[in-house]
UniProtKB/TrEMBL annotation:
This is CoA-binding domain-containing protein. Residues 11-106 form the CoA-binding domain. It comes from the Bacteria. One of its GO terms (molecular function) is ATP binding.
Length: 702
């Protein structure tokens, strides 16, 4: 790992930069890198290469790479895709640490582009590549801009603690300019684009060690190496550096046609949700969140609860913030007696509304002393965990006085303090942000920022547990869809409890089995061709020894009429009841293998109360979920109260459920790529001490 990190350090902090294909015209894309390096104060050596020019500005220009007087740390390659690999090969031969390839025309264009991309990789050898199809990188911490983005036409940028890694070049320029306009300080911005070599995870890993970066913001199109991404994000979490990601592609179908409910409910975007949750990544729901959340997290302040004070001089805006916070589960309690008295001592008269929240201090925007006093009283109050200050129109007359007053109070507490700027006044928001008070133009942004701060405060990087049980000898397994009996036999081998049942072929056998199992039974067709048996009349419940034979005859006719298949094998199963019905399944896509838990039964897809966890993978293969993961999954569900004794209901056997989830995940881990789909729906969770029981099962093997 040392060599790649060293190469990335040289990429981000080069002492010399070669510009291959540099133009003397700063108006052209090929002319921008030299112009921007000079404009923004690069202190190292700039080495333009162009056989048609002797000088570019005040710099000598070299005819080719061989003519360079030294080996550059980094080269920006501005040649087209048909020639870029030639320059890359020469640079690698000279010992250059890294090349930034701006050209497009690679895998994003099809088969010929993929051939060019392989050619580029082969040419690079051990030299690192950023791109291709990248806009480059910007290191604001050290005034090093290795990019052609037009956003660098701006004269200056705030420098701060937010590092940005984007798989889109255009988005890098967008975030750079938006952050500057809002007074948000960034540290490094990197566009990885096609990621022929260096990728998201490499830069997350590096920024986790970067003393200038406190928060890492990601613009993600896809995660190419989930294991590497997971390791990098967990490293950042353990270093106390939150990662915020905006993932595009949420509207894609994700799940292909599947025989199980799980396949329909999982989908690619749900898999990303699961991955992000497991590694502590905060998911930005909107593009604006990708700056709003990091700027709040970069303050380093700690949100220990969900009680928020809203200080306002305009009632309507305070209500907007309060309402949005309430929808997200935050509380806005009235001031306690001591806090109310402290506030009342600051301002008298009927204008002040100090016994409720939002706390309306009418003259706060015009009297900095009053604003300071109110802020200090609220930050000192044991009733509040955070403070949102509403900046109304009355504050616009003296924004500097107001910003200074808020800033003066920040050292008094480590509670989050942020501002909602009610009028359209971007310059006031930028002023506050530069003073260390994240300022937002939307009430929803305050909520998103506080929610992210709460998640960061409650996340603990997982401690990996070794699998408790070893390999299960499965013998020879068939390929394709298993019938229900075969599926449950497989579950049983991994110690997932299943309902008692027998295979029958005649009404007489069905009647005898029903007597053997006792009580009421369930009758099902047994078929690997028909998965959703109830849709074709292939399930009947509550049968007795006296009725099961007749129902078998009727079921045979019903299924043949609806499905065109005449069933000749059936299951007679004990009728399980009196518990909570859940669904337990697995789903696999390019991101990995995940286990899904949710509300089960025939309404599983309707309510979609589900949660997912990805299995971890290393050189030894997939690993089962830990018991801690399994319990956390159960607690994630909206229906968790039903398992935990809701309104006097008996508590469910959660320990047995956890055992079943872990056992099911062991099956998914051991079978690996052979397991295409697997699902138990429903799994009945009975009262405490009575266990769980799988009542139906689907398995598809490759």
């Amino acid at each position: 790992m040392d060599a790649p990190i060293n190469a990335i350090s040289r990429l981000l902090q080069p002492r010399s930069v070669a510009i291959i294909g540099a133009s003397a015209d700063p108006g052209k894309t090929a002319g921008r890198p030299v112009a921007y390096l000079q404009k923004h104060g690069f202190a190292g050596r700039i080495l333009p290469v162009n056989p048609k020019a002797d000088r570019i500005g005040d710099l000598p220009c070299y005819a080719d790479i061989a003519s360079l007087p030294e080996t550059p740390d980094v080269a920006i390659v501005l040649l087209g895709a048909e020639r870029a690999h030639l320059a890359v090969k020469e640079l690698s031969a000279r010992g250059c640490a890294a090349a930034i390839v701006l050209a497009s025309g690679y895998t994003e264009t099809g088969e010929e582009g993929a051939r060019r991309q392989k050619q580029l990789v082969d040419a690079a050898g051990s030299m690192r590549i950023l791109g291709p199809n990248t806009i480059g990188l910007v290191n604001l911490t050290d005034a090093i801009v290795l990019s052609a983005t037009g956003a660098l036409e701006m004269d200056e940028f705030p420098v701060g603690g937010i590092g940005v890694v984007s798989q889109s070049g255009g988005i890098l320029g967008s975030l750079l300019s938006r952050a500057a306009a809002r007074g948000i300080g960034l540290s490094k911005l990197i566009s990885t684009s096609n990621e022929v070599d260096l990728e998201l995870a490499d830069f997350i890993h590096h920024l986790a060690d970067d003393p200038a970066t406190q928060v890492i913001a990601l613009y993600i199109e896809t995660v190419r190496d989930p294991a590497k991404f997971r390791a990098a994000c967990l490293k950042a979490a353990r270093k106390g550096k939150p990662v915020v990601a905006f993932k595009i592609g949420r509207s894609e179908a994700g799940a292909q046609a599947a025989v199980s409910h799980t396949g329909a409910m999982a989908g690619a975007d749900r898999m990303y949700d699961a991955l992000f949750k497991q590694v502590g990544v905060i998911r930005a729901q909107t593009f604006n969140d990708l700056l709003d959340i990091p700027v709040a997290l970069a303050t380093g302040r700690h949100l220990r609860g969900k009680r928020v004070a809203i200080l306002t001089s305009t009632g309507g805006a305070g209500t907007l913030v309060s309402d949005d916070l309430g929808v997200a589960g935050f509380e806005t309690p009235a001031p306690d007696v001591a806090t109310a008295e402290a506030l009342r001592a600051l301002q008298t008269g009927s204008e002040a509304v100090l016994d409720r929240n939002p706390i309306d201090v009418t003259l706060a925007g015009l009297r900095p002393d009053l604003l300071r006093g109110a802020i200090r009283a609220l930050l000192a109050s044991p009733s509040y965990d955070a403070l949102v200050i509403i900046v109304g129109s009355s504050s616009l007359a003296m924004p500097e006085l107001m910003a200074n007053a808020i800033r003066d109070c920040l050292p008094d507490s480590d509670k989050p303090v942020m501002a909602y700027v009610s009028p359209h006044a971007p310059e006031v928001g930028a002023l506050l942000t530069r003073h260390g008070v994240p300022a937002f133009a939307a009430a929803e942004s305050c909520t998103a920022a506080l929610a992210a701060m709460f998640k960061v405060g409650s996340f603990a990087a997982p401690v990996e547990e070794a699998d408790a049980v070893g390999f299960v000898d499965l013998g020879e397994l068939p390929s394709g869809s298993l019938d229900e009996a075969q599926a449950k036999q497989l579950f049983t081998r991994f110690n997932v409890p299943c309902a008692a049942e027998r295979i029958v072929t005649t009404p007489t056998e069905a009647e005898a089995t029903a007597r053997e199992l006792g009580g009421r039974v369930v009758l099902k067709i047994l078929s690997s061709q028909i998965t959703h048996k109830s849709d074709v009349g292939g399930v009947a419940i509550g049968l007795t020894p006296e009725t099961v034979g007749e129902r078998l005859i009727g079921m045979t006719a019903d299924v043949q009429a609806k499905a065109g298949v005449r069933p000749d094998r059936f299951l007679v199963q004990e009728m399980v009841g009196g518990g909570t019905e859940l669904i337990l399944g697995m789903h696999r896509d390019a991101l990995g293998t995940a286990v899904l838990l949710g509300m089960g039964g025939v309404t599983a897809e309707l309510f979609k109360d589900t949660t997912m966890r990805l299995l971890t993978q290393d050189a030894q293969g997939l690993h089962a979920l830990s018991r801690a993961d399994a319990l956390a999954m159960a607690k994630d569900l909206k229906t968790w109260p039903l398992l935990d004794g809701f309104r006097g209901r008996p508590k469910a056997d959660v320990e047995a459920l956890v055992d079943a989830i872990v056992a099911f995940s062991r099956m998914a881990a051991q079978l690996g790529d052979r397991l295409v789909e697997a699902e138990i729906n429903p799994v009945f969770v009975r009262a405490q001490g009575q266990g769980v029981s799988a009542a139906d099962g689907v398995v598809v093997l490759a």
